[in-house]
Amino acid sequence: MAGHQGTSTRKNPVEGLFAATEAERREINTTLDGTIVSYDRATQRATIQPKLERKFGDKTLKAPPLQEIKVVQQNGGGFGVHVDLKPGDPVTVHFRQRSVDKSQTDGTDTNGSPGRMHDLSDAIAYPGGGEDSKIMTNMPAGGAHYGSSDGKSGLQARAGGSSAIVGGPNGSDKLTVSAAGKVDLKGENGDSLFQIIRDLAQVFRNHTNTGAPLDSPFVAAADAIIARLDAIHG
Fold first, then answer.
1. What's the first-to-final CA gap in the chain, in angstroms?
2. 103 near 110, Cβ under 8 Å?
3. Parallel, antiparallel, or unpaired for β 123-127 and 90-95?
4. Would you say 209 and 218 are in contact if contact means Cβ atoms under 8 Å apart?
5. pLDDT of 117-133, one tens digit each?
6. DSSP state of 120
7. For the segment 172-215, what is each residue's pLDDT rounded down to a tens digit?
């Protein structure tokens, strides 16, 4: 087959056809890994270095950087998510099957007639990809995470309907909302702000002045504060 046969076999018409077909296939660009060289968050376009090189005799040439490539940031329905990419960040680059000169400028349909096909200039990039070792860690089981790639800061939606904002040196829960709508706010040491306020209300309620308990209106007010806290905090 082409690519595996000696030059003498090229005299065979069938082998010559295989060789021509393979040579054409090698010029078709589909999907490549790439890295960010620079990114403009105002235009969401980037200069990207494809991870592609070719050998010509004893020479090895790297693919040229791709200029002004649109980076797809997830959006729709008037909402979206934006990631401010940094040099060296991995991206996955796709090459559209036809020229995007029209579809990306005035939004009209691309002409399917002969023209550019799978061309480097018709690339579009998606954040992510790269080496298999570059993965996000400490992700919530059965949930979703939007935040740092080490899972220690950001917003998490969790199994069972709860959610949390995590942060701090150890990435612990800072603000949580249970599936029932109960809220908690915690410090790095794990103390709950709502529990501290509840404890303070209890101290006030149970306070005695030279052995005499609080007047009943103050006790009732403290009990009402504790009940309101219990309705919020879970």
1. 69
2. yes
3. antiparallel
4. no
5. 777 778 899 999 888 88
6. G
7. 999 999 999 999 999 999 999 999 999 999 988 888 777 777 78
